[in-house]
Each structure stands twice: as structure tokens, then as C-alpha cells.
Amino acid sequence: MKRSDRLVSLSHYFLENPKQHTSLPFFSERYQAAKSSISEDLVIVDRVLREEGIGYLQTSAGAAGGVKYIPYLSEKNSTAFIHELCKTLEDPERILPGGYLYMSDILGNPKMVKLIGRVLASAFSDLDIDVVVTVATKGIPLAYSVASVLNVPVVIVRRDPKVTEGSSVSINYVSGSSRKIQTMVLPKRSLQENANVCIIDDFMKAGGTINGMTSLLNEFDANVKAIGVLAEADDEEDERVVEEYTSLVKITNVDIKRKNIEVIPGKLHG
Amino acid sequence: MKRSDRLVSLSHYFLENPKQHTSLPFFSERYQAAKSSISEDLVIVDRVLREEGIGYLQTSAGAAGGVKYIPYLSEKNSTAFIHELCKTLEDPERILPGGYLYMSDILGNPKMVKLIGRVLASAFSDLDIDVVVTVATKGIPLAYSVASVLNVPVVIVRRDPKVTEGSSVSINYVSGSSRKIQTMVLPKRSLQENANVCIIDDFMKAGGTINGMTSLLNEFDANVKAIGVLAEADDEEDERVVEEYTSLVKITNVDIKRKNIEVIPGKLHG
Fold first, then answer.
1. Which of A5, A8, A102 sits opposite B165 (nearest CB)?
2. Separation of alpha carbons A206 and B17, rounded Å
3. How far apart are the C-alpha atoms of A46 and A61, rounded to whole Å?
4. What CATH fold (topology level) applies to the domain B75-265?
5. Domain locations in chain B?
6. Do B8 and A7 touch (CB under 8 A)?
7. Mean pLDDT for each consecutive 10-residue tract of chain B (270 residues)?
8. CATH code matching the domain that covers B3-71, chosen among 3.40.109.10, 1.10.10.10, 3.40.50.300, 3.90.470.20
């Protein structure tokens, strides 16, 4: 295969297999090309990925040597995206009764979801995450987006047990904002013990839901390495039960009467 | 920018923007290259995509001319994947009480979900779909995977209304297998009238859930153009209330006593 064709094929391979270690001989055989040619190809791919601010190739030498694509959104790219997101969310038409914000259109847009996931995954890139955990329903697409960049599975905590998942562990917890007792369930075979976990959700008010997930994950001896949310509300900051987390945006000053909201960058670039 | 660099950048651009029309002048300006050079690049990218069986570039001439990446898994690739999937699902350890099959590990694997989505999206590639609709919870990752290939949004039908979504339309329906009355809800502003819809779900028994979704979508004057599921069970085929659909695999002969299952290719390549 010619270099030009190899470059297209290699680009596709890396984008489809983030964080996966591949040996140079694999490519030599696949493309029937000398290792030295493949090495030159990799230099080109790495350079373009870095220039576009979307990641880089990590090469390791020696017998077990090879290459791995690390997706990484540059700070410039992610800051630009977060500012764009703030502007989109400040639309007063989004204010719902009760001071909630309509975000389903954003969470329903696969391209936006992909970008949000990439920003969060970039922040957690060095944490050696084994699995991404979320709670049904709204956090699910974001969790998959993060997991797909980190190349790890997703586990979904449910509020109701399902017959199709076998025996499960459940906990009761008190919701932060509504002060109601709620239940969370995780099938026994969905998570191995001592896993390094990243919790992802769409929205955090007082943090009761995330706190509940943490308690449930304790039952599996999991290590919660990171917590990432798309948006946090600042009106219950004083009562917040979760301290270590990352948010893309922060919703402040929701004024239902005057139909006004302010959305600012969250903890990540705040 | 040199051709080699352009090829990496172009490959990335197309894979990130499936089914999106882009004009040639956009690339000329982006890469500071002549239109003729860009055209030659596109020939190379198109050739490699076709050779690898993952799609092709669709070019249109004239004033509004440009190029669009159509992801399309070749029949060879998708048949191989479906056979692999059947083997994975035939593991007797998957049998759960009640004759259900444990599939959460597959649905929790972003790479598998991406491939399943690609197979389904390839089948619906020509249908001019505007939106992918699914019902919470298990179908959600598959729906996003299909939608991301088709470059359209996802709308999630819920079983319980949420305060964060504004006013909604709801229907009651009778579940096919349990014969219970159930509810489905869709926020009013989540779907425009007369949309071309593709319904995606993980599993179909008698089809009551999908039938319920169809009724709810009627309230929005939507046109259900396609129905795609990962797996169908054949034990209730006689009572099936949905006729036109596509499935990747079909689960037959679940023998709980002897711990035996048979999984065969579904309607798509059956």
C-alpha cells in the first residue's frame, strides 16, 4: 500500500481505537510495508493530530513497543467549546417551571455529546480509569461518550431493578434537593471489585444523586477517581454534599420572573 | 499544507462529520491548496474507505457542489460482525431466571455499541431519517450510535415524566408480553411534526414497547420509516404486533434446564 493510502487507513484506525496499544509489526504486516516507513507515517499522523489540538500518538520502544492514540482536546479547543455552550444555554426560552433548564436538545445532539465527552475525558486522561458509571437516564449518552474516548466500559446504575440483569446490590439514599428517600440498584455482575471508577452525570444540584452513587460503589469496593458533570447549579452550593468534581458549566442567577439566566464556565476552566 | 498532512486531516474531518455536506472551497481555504489538489486527495480518501468496507465519499458537482462522507459497513464486514455476536451471545452463562439473556456487558461496551449502531445505520442509510427515537433505558446507547452515523438527533421516550422537560404528551398501552398497562411520555418540544423517524431498541419480544412508541409518535404526526433492534426473541413470534423491523440477531431455543441457547442472524442478514 502506498504512503498516501496508508495515512488515510492509519488515521481511521487510530480514531476508531483510542487508547489501544498496537505494535508496529501489526501495521507492517497489515500494510506490507517496512517498519521504518510505518514509523515515518506515525510521525506525520502525530504531527497533524497535535496541530489540530485533538490528541497525539504515544509511542513506546522495546520488545513490547508500539503506539497508542491519546485523544486530548487542547485547552484552546475546549475553552472555545465551553464558551459556546454557555452562550447556547443562556437562551431564556430554556427556563422551565421550577427554575430548571431545558437541555434535552443538547443532550440529544450526538455531535455535542461527543464533544462534551471529549472535554471530560481529556480532563481524566491520566487517571487510569477502568469503568465509567452513570445513573439512568440523562447521563447515559455523556457516559458513553467519555467511555468511548477512554476505551473502557459503561455501567448504568438504575432506580428500579430489572429482571434482565440478574441479582443486584441496592442502597437507599436521601436526595439532596428534594430530601426524599430514593433507591439505586447495580447488578452484581456489572462491576468487578476494586475498579477505578469515573462517575458521569448531566446535572448536579446539591449532589445527592452522585453521593448516592458513591455509596453504592463503596459496596463494590470501587475507587471513585473522578466525578464529571456537564452542568452544576450554584444555588445550592452551600448544601453541596460532593466536593471533588469537574463541571463544564455553572448555571447561576436563574431569574424566572425576568426570564434571565447566567451560565459561566464551570470548575474545569473556571 | 502538504498532501500527506492533508490526508490525515481530511480523514479525521470526514470521520467526525458523517453525512455532512462540505463544499470544496471550504477545504481549499482550510488547507491553502488548489481545488484540483483537494479533488485528488478526495479520490485517495474515497478509495481507502471503500477498500476497507467502511463507507465512501459522495461528491456532487455544480455551484452547490461538494462532498459528503457516507459511512456504510460492507455486507462482508457486517455479516462477520453479526456471526461473532451470535457466538458471544450463545454463552450459557448469560441465561437469567425467566429465560432472559444477560446482554449488559455488550450494551456497556462502547466499541460494540458503535459497531451495532453502524450496522443498523447502514441498513437505514437511504431512508432520509430526521431523528432517532428510543425508549429509556437500554436502547439509549444504541440509539446514539445510530444517530451519530446518520448525523441526526436522538429523542428519548420515558416511562415517567420529568419536571426538567416541560409539558409533554403521554399515552397508555398494553405491554405485549406482560399484558400490563404502561405509560410512555414524550416532551412536546422534543419532536417536530411530520419528522421521519427511526425507532431503535435493544430487544424485542412481542413488540408491545415498539408498538407503544409508534402510537405515541402518531400523536406527533411522525412517519416511522424504520425500526431496528439488536436482538429479537422468537418465542413470541406468533403474537408479534410489529411486522416491519430489522434485527441483528434472533434468540431461539432458550433451554433453561439444559443451559442451552441458540442465537442466529436476525432479519438483516437472516
1. A102
2. 37
3. 16
4. Rossmann fold (3.40.50)
5. 3-71, 75-265
6. yes
7. 97 96 95 96 98 95 88 94 96 83 92 96 95 95 98 93 78 77 90 96 91 95 97 79 91 87 90
8. 1.10.10.10
